[in-house]
Automatic annotation (TrEMBL):
Single GO cellular component term: nuclear envelope
Key word Coiled coil present: yes
Signal peptide: none
Source superkingdom: Eukaryota
Keyword Coiled coil: yes
An example molecular function term from Gene Ontology annotations: choline-phosphate cytidylyltransferase activity
Protein name: Uncharacterized protein
Amino acid sequence: IPYASADSEDIYAGLKRSGRFIPTRRTANISTSSLITRLLRDYDKFLRRQILRGISREDLNISSFKESQVRIKEKLNMEIDGLKNELGEIFKRWERQSNLWLGSFIRRFETNRPGWTASP
């Protein structure tokens, strides 16, 4: 299949003549653009996983700034998750304590008023 452009009938003709061109087979319903988009979208996730696995920035071909950026973002995410868990525990304790106080309040007035019953 020739790959034409405005300047050439086949932009890969030189590579084909030298035997360095390997044609790709098209697969129905698979878009090269969507594959590239997915790769680029998930690139930061990929870098994070690789850095956390101990792969060096040199092997990943990224700058020290990018490595630091990924590590700082991971640390911030861990801190945020920790805060969310801590707040969740505080709210659970607060709810338990308020239920105890409310129950104590109801029992106090329930016993002081004969004939009065609290509804559940």
